[in-house]
Design a protein that fits this description.
By secondary structure, the chain is an alpha+beta fold. The protein is built from 6 helices and 7 strands, in the order αβααβββαβββαα. The strands form 3 sheets. It has a 3-stranded antiparallel beta sheet with strand order 5-6-7, covered by helices on one side.
């Protein structure tokens, strides 16, 4: 080695580091922002469904959104070309709080089916507001019937007519539960065993939790 030769340690090079935005974390934060808007900016974002009335975010996620982002990235998985969403109903047992215990990530098709399992308040306070989930009243026959749009269908199917709302709901509940189980089997190879088991034992309730 000659006197003119320098080693890498002899060369003073200052490396500048640039922090590039992580696309996955950016997407996760966008998901968090959407949940936050549904919970706390309902007046501004009026297009959100009434099923988000009273929804909240747990203290740890609310005070530190980075914890939600970490949870989201740890639990995220793709299912074909479907949109994946955060669901709080499958494990929430009626709770309206977004939290690590209540939430899971599922295809939007499953999320929509679970959202449709909740009866929404009727602001007009009509007689229909007192009917169980999925039950309709026929004023011509003065009888009650269930109505369901099965998975993969665009039009609702009218079920049998019954003398009481309770009887109509019992039929609706059986068919709705079967529809959810078919959905679970359809996605069995893509979702976790925990999500699959929860779908198979999901309870269809006649009224929303207060």
């Amino acid at each position: 080695m000659t006197n003119d030769t320098k080693t890498i340690d002899d060369i003073e090079i200052k490396q500048e580091y640039y922090e590039y935005p992580n696309k996955a974390r950016s997407r996760a934060y966008a998901v968090y922002q959407g949940i936050y808007n549904r919970c706390y900016k309902r007046n501004k974002y009026t297009n959100y469904n009434d099923c988000y009335d009273g929804a909240t975010i747990c203290k740890e996620w609310l005070e530190n959104p980075e914890l939600f982002i970490d949870w989201y990235l740890e639990n995220y998985y793709p299912v074909k070309d479907e949109i994946m969403v955060v669901d709080k109903d499958l494990f929430g047992n009626g709770s309206k709080e977004y939290s690590p215990d209540n939430c899971c990530i599922v295809p939007v098709t499953i999320n929509a089916m679970l959202t449709n399992c909740k009866k929404h308040d009727n602001p007009a306070h009509t007689a229909a507001a007192d009917l169980p989930l999925g039950v309709r009243y026929n004023p011509d026959t003065h009888m009650y019937y269930g109505e369901i749009t099965p998975f993969g269908h665009d039009e609702p199917a009218k079920l049998e007519e019954w003398n009481t709302p309770g009887e109509a709901f019992e039929e609706y509940m059986i068919i709705k539960k079967a529809d959810i189980m078919v959905m679970a089997v359809k996605y069995k190879n893509y979702i976790s065993q925990r999500v699959f088991d929860a779908l198979m034992r999901y309870e269809v309730r006649p009224y929303i939790e207060k």
